[in-house]
Amino acid sequence: MAGARRPLALCRSWLFLPGAEAAALRAAPALGADVLIQELEDFCPPDRRPAARGLCRDLFAAWRAAGALAAVRINPLEDGGREDLAAAMAGQPDLVLMSKVAAPEQVAALAAALAALEAAPIRTAPIRTTIVPNIESAAGVVRTLAIATASPRVGACLLAAEDLAADLDAERTPEGTELAHARSRFLLECTAAGVVAIDCPFTFGDLAAAEADLRRARALGFKAKSIVNGDQVALVNRLLTPSAAEVAKAGRMVAAFEAARARGEDRAEVDGLFVEVPTYLAAQRLLRRAAALRAAPSPDSSAPRGRARP
User: How much helix, strand and coil, in percent to the nearest 5, is found in the chain?
Assistant: First the structure.
């Protein structure tokens, strides 16, 4: 029986795991990530993909039972992805991420392939898998809105870091200035499409630098972060959950604004900030999200923390 799990909109941490490393995959729920992703693309050498595909059926059931959303990242359909998908669907993943999506037609093809596999006679219960396109190129970034709206199955999009930097011929730095515009545009287009925007992974080992990167992403508006280093899971979950101080401040802002309006005034001042209608609505959103995160089930994180990086 699968454990209770978070809805997609409340999933903060999306952890990639090496697709053929059976021990690391089985131990992954202890890291506490909201979404666990079996990697069948770059972090899984081609000669190990057949073995990785064979793990899907039992692996995803175990992840669901531990309270995590079970996901898989497949290669593009024209480059081994159909074989990846057929194997993965034996485990009925909650989410299928497809790499190197640069056009809406790729999403439409994946949706059609999923529908055919879901209708296969071997199914004992109806399932409907969510699609998460991975945007990894300049062409993909400028088409994010079209990609995100190419199928009703798309519930989120994920921005890659290394492939995008390579496509731009940019120098990859811990500060991430080379991807600043792409991250902002990606978030803008995902928001316009009404899907979850998953920020690119921080691929350096320095936790202090990882925190700085995550704070920049949070300031932009990101609520979800992809991870390739298990040491960063707790950091992501903490910083993408409103803190007690943030909740208290938002509560003061709401109360002050409502009191001001009751007096016939147009705004209120809280901690030197003028609270007007947009600020008031943002504070209400923060309070609702904090309450929803408190009420949401958490993945199993009872085991000791450890490293899990592809």
Answer: 50, 15, 35
Q: Looking at residue 126, what is its pLDDT? A: 52
Dihedral over Cα of 109, 93, 102, 197: its sign? positive
Residue 187 lies in a domain: yes
Neighbours of 45 (CB within 10 A): 11
| Contact between residue 205 and residue 229 where contact means Cβ atoms under 8 Å apart | yes
Residues 220-274 have pLDDT tens digits of: 999 999 999 999 999 999 999 999 999 999 999 999 999 999 999 999 999 999 9
Burial of 83 (0-12, 13-18, 19+ CB in 10 A): middle
Cβ neighbours of residue 138 under 8 Å, at least 6 residues apart?
A: 164, 167, 168, 182
Indicate the average pLDDT of the chain: 92
Domain that holds residue 44: 8-241
Q: Assess if residue 288 is contained within a domain.
A: no
List the binding residues. Answer: 73, 136, 163
Q: Can you give the CATH number for the domain in which 17 is found?
A: 3.20.20.60
Binding residues for Mg(2+): 136, 163
Q: Is residue 122 very low, low, confident or very high in pLDDT (cuts 50, 70, 90)?
A: low
CB 256 within 8 A of CB 275: yes
Average pLDDT over residues 194-208: 96
Residue 22 placed within a domain: yes
The rounded distance, in Å, linking the Cα atoms of 112 and 193 is 21
For the chain, what is the domain count?
Answer: 1
What's the pTM?
A: 0.92
Residues in the annotated binding site for substrate = 73, 136
Query: Parallel, antiparallel, or unpaired for β 13-18 and 224-227?
Result: parallel
- Check if the beta carbon of residue 5 is closer than 8 Å to that of residue 35: no
Decide if 248 is inside a domain.
no
